[in-house]
Each structure stands twice: as C-alpha cells, then as structure tokens.
Design goal:
The complex is a heterodimer. By secondary structure, chain A is α+β, with helices and mostly antiparallel strands. Chain A has 4 helices and 9 strands. Chain B has a domain of 129 residues. Classes of the chains: A alpha+beta, B alpha+beta.
Chain lengths: 304, 196
C-alpha cells in the first residue's frame, strides 16, 4: 500500500496524543491497582480473622459439649463429699456403740474411695479424648483454609495454625457449689482457702487440688474452670479478649504439633493463625498476616 | 538534515515532522490539558486519598469495637476504652482528626425490633432489658461512633473559602457496632456481665 507523506505527518501529530492518553491511562491504572491492593489486604485479613474465630469457637464448643465438663466437675465434687462423709462414718464406728457396724463402714469407705479413683481416671480419659478431637479439628480447619484466595496478581494462601493452646480464664471458678450440709468439710475447705466466696453462692476454686485431710489426702480432686449456672441460665459460648488466659497444654507450637497431656479439663482455647500474602499488582510485595483469638467454652447447666 | 529555506529539520523521505505541523495542535491542546489536569486530574488525585483514609479509619474503629465487645464485663470495656489512646491511634493514619468518640451499649428487643435502649455507662440498663426481663429476649450490641475530619492529600488553605475536600477537611461520622459476647451472669454477685 502506498503511503503519502501527508498521511505520515498526520500520524506523527496524533502519536503525541496517543502517548499522552497511554500515560494518563497508566497513571489511572496504577492508582486503581494501589486501591485494589489495599482492598485485598483488608479482605484477606478479615478472612483470616473469620477462620481463626471459627476455629476457636468450634474447639471451645467441643471442650464442654453437652456439659460433659460441668457434669464431671459435679461428679468430682460429690465423690469428694462422699469420701469425706464415709471417713467420718468409719471413725464413728470406732466407738463401742457402733463397733458392730465397722465392717460395713469400712466397705462403704472403700467403695467411696474406689469411686473417687474411677471418676479421676474417667476424667483423664475424657480429657485425652477431647485433646485428640481438638488435634483432628485443627487439621481439618487448616486443610479447609489452605485453599486461600487467588486472583491474577494477588494471592493470600497457606493459612496455618501456628500456635494452639488450651487452658482456662483465671477469673472463672468451678461450677461446683460448696458442701454446705457437711460442716466439717466446709470448715476444712475454708481453712485451706479452697472456696471462692460470693454474694449469691460459694463455689470451689478451679485448677486446685482439693485435698481431703488425713488418710484420704492421697486422692486427687481437681475441678475444671467452668462458669456456674446463675438464675437458671448457663453462660453461653463466647469469644474473649484473652486477658487472664492461662494455658495448661500446648497442642501446637510454631506450626508443629506438640505432644503432651492435660491434667485438668480445659475450658478455653487460644488460636494463632497466619497467612502469607503476595501481590505484584503494584511492585512486588510479600507479607504475613496474623490473627489471635481466644474463646471460652459454654458454662455448666443446672444440676437436675 | 535541514530545509534550506526554513532551516527546519526534515526526514530522510522529505516529509515534514510534527514540529512544523503539530505545534499548533499542541498549543491548542495545551489549554485543554491544563484545564483537565488542574480541574480534574489533580483534584481527583487530591481527593483519592480520602477513601483510603476513611477505609483505614473504619477498619480501626471496627477492630476496636470488636475487641471491646469481647470484654469480660461492660465496665471493663468502658475502662479499657477510656484508658486506651484510641483517638491518637486514629490520628496515626495521617490526615484523620478524630473530634469526638462515644461508646454505648444498645439493647434491642427481638420481639419488637423498633424498641431499643441505649446506655452510656455500666449498670444503667434497666431490669426489663436484661436477659430474662419482660422486654427480652434482647440483642446486645456495643456501638462506637467517631466524629472525624479527613483531610485530602493537600489542603489548599484559602481564607474565606470553605470547600470540603479542597480548602478544608471533610467531616465524617463513623459508626461501627459489634454483638456483645459475654451474655453470662457473675455467679458471685448475680449481676449480668452485660450490665456489670
């Protein structure tokens, strides 16, 4: 095709327009790119926060599902009271008036003691099963959140549970009311500072070995920190700020599973999740986002 | 290579370059360009920082109210809010001047969503609005409002001229809320944490 000099001159003059248009377009695209990157960073962080909250709440729910923890606490409390009263009964049969009943009292005492040991073992078994379930939940949650977000030049992926702790909130006592009917036991507990007194109700302190006096001091009675029901309502499952969280077992540390045994039923979890973010919309940028969440298990129900 | 008569440059094929033909177009277009840049592109760039600052501010307010709603009791939330340097935190964004902040608890009746009760201090929620009260069940939300002024990238201070976004910052009313988490009751005092 023949090109006339006149046409070439026209094209050159328009060329500067084209250059200007491209320059303005590039500036505008850069501005849009920056805004889009900002939005994606916020969006990804929100996403990570939601995953972390979901995992914390789901695991906290598991800790006292169907009030298993609260029921075990009540069993421990009743079993302790039974051992104490059986021992008192046995001592009474030392007198001449009741000596004939000593054999029966010894049998009752032994049954009470073996019952206390059984409750202790079952509680430990429950804790082990709970911890196993939690480890499973962490893996499932991690696998679900691994997919992440992937857009053309932006990716937020590799959500990982870096730290996972189980424990309790130190300001929460147990759900077990003091044995007001057994005055000697109440006196002993007050003397040993086992009771958290309140205006409405006195409760046993949590995570303290409530040792009995004398020959029964070999038995262990440790209660979990589970909110007691008040006015007929149980405390619901919730997220907390994590103030006063005391961990009793690390299930995961620095991204690696940690083996260990929990000695008491935990009632709170703390989750630390991270996610890697990469973008090259405007320049190359890599960063790691972090979300920390603490959730507290639901409270105990009213005892029937 | 130059034209002998005019002294202007010519190409190898003898065609005239844009300096001869295109200069007039560029000078005509220059005025339009000046108008485009001064009246549209520069104010646009100047104003474009405002949504970014607003987004950052909203995100900070949202995070703060979310954090406060997870407090053990309402008094702790108010105390924590009072003690923290929240306004200074907002000014760190740059160009974000928080004028006033207000934290309050809103109880909304689930049966009658039009009815709600707003309290600005712990212990002020009437018994009817507490869990188990006659207005219940209720939805409890912690509300944080911030009156702020957001400056553009460059504020042109012209005496007597008050154009928001150009000669003065734009006033905004940020409002974020989050559901109150601890709906339990303190076993020792019998008070609900939402009102304690």
């Amino acid at each position: 095709m023949k090109v006339f000099p006149r046409q070439l001159a026209k094209r050159d003059a328009r060329g500067s327009m084209l250059f200007l248009c491209i320059a303005v377009l590039m500036v505008m695209l850069t501005v849009v790119g920056i805004a889009f990157s900002f939005y994606l960073v916020f969006f990804s962080h929100k996403h990570l926060q939601n995953w972390s909250e979901d995992l914390a709440l789901e695991c906290a729910r598991q800790l006292n599902e169907n009030d298993h923890g609260g029921k075990i606490n009540n069993l421990v409390g009743h079993s302790r009271e039974l051992v104490f009263t059986s021992r008192e009964l046995y001592y009474k049969t030392n007198s001449d008036d009741f000596r004939a009943l000593q054999g029966l009292a010894a049998q009752v005492l032994e049954q009470a003691r073996s019952g206390a040991r059984l409750v202790f073992d079952e509680r430990n078994r429950y804790v082990d099963v709970s911890m196993k379930n939690l480890r499973q939940k962490i893996k499932v949650a991690e696998a679900q959140s691994k997919r992440g977000l992937l857009l053309t030049n932006f990716s937020a992926s590799g959500a990982q549970v870096v730290d996972f702790k189980v424990g309790n909130l130190d300001q929460v006592a147990s759900n077990v009311e003091t044995s007001s009917g057994v005055t000697n036991l109440l006196f002993h507990d007050r003397r040993r500072n086992y009771i958290k007194t309140g205006k409405q109700v006195d409760l046993y302190k949590a995570n303290v070995n409530l040792k009995l006096p004398g020959e029964d001091s070999d038995l262990n009675f440790e209660l979990a920190s589970i909110p007691a029901p008040v006015k007929g309502t149980a405390a619901p499952l919730r997220l907390t700020r994590g103030q006063g969280f005391k961990h009793s077992l690390l299930l995961r540390s620095a991204g690696a599973d940690v083996s260990g045994k929990c000695t008491v039923i935990p009632s709170a979890v703390q989750v630390v999740m991270t996610m890697n973010m990469k973008q090259n919309v405007v320049g190359k940028f890599e960063s790691q986002m972090r979300a920390v969440n603490t959730a507290c298990a639901n409270g105990a129900w009213m005892e029937p | 290579m130059c034209n002998k008569q005019t002294g202007r440059p010519i190409s190898a094929k003898g065609r005239r370059l844009r300096s001869q033909k295109g200069s007039a177009q560029l000078s005509e277009f220059g005025a339009a360009l000046f108008l485009l840049f001064s009246c549209f592109v520069l104010p646009l760039i100047d104003l474009s920082i405002i949504p970014v600052r607003l987004g950052l501010g909203k995100s900070i307010v949202n995070n703060r109210v979310h954090q406060l709603a997870q407090s053990e009791c309402l008094s702790e939330a108010f105390r924590s809010f009072k003690e923290s340097d929240f306004q200074t935190g907002l000014t760190k964004i740059g160009g974000f001047n928080a004028q006033a902040t207000q934290l309050s608890l809103i109880a909304t009746s689930v049966k009658n969503p039009d009815q709600s009760m707003i309290v600005n201090r712990p212990g002020a929620l009437p018994g009817d609005w507490l869990p188990g009260g006659i207005k219940g069940p209720c939805l409890y939300r912690l509300d944080l409002t911030v009156d702020a002024e957001i400056e553009p990238l460059i504020t042109a201070h012209v005496p007597g001229v008050q154009i928001p976004g150009l000669t003065r910052p734009i006033p905004f009313h940020l409002h974020e809320e989050c559901n109150w988490e601890n709906l339990g009751c303190d076993p020792s005092s019998g008070e609900f944490f939402v009102n304690k």
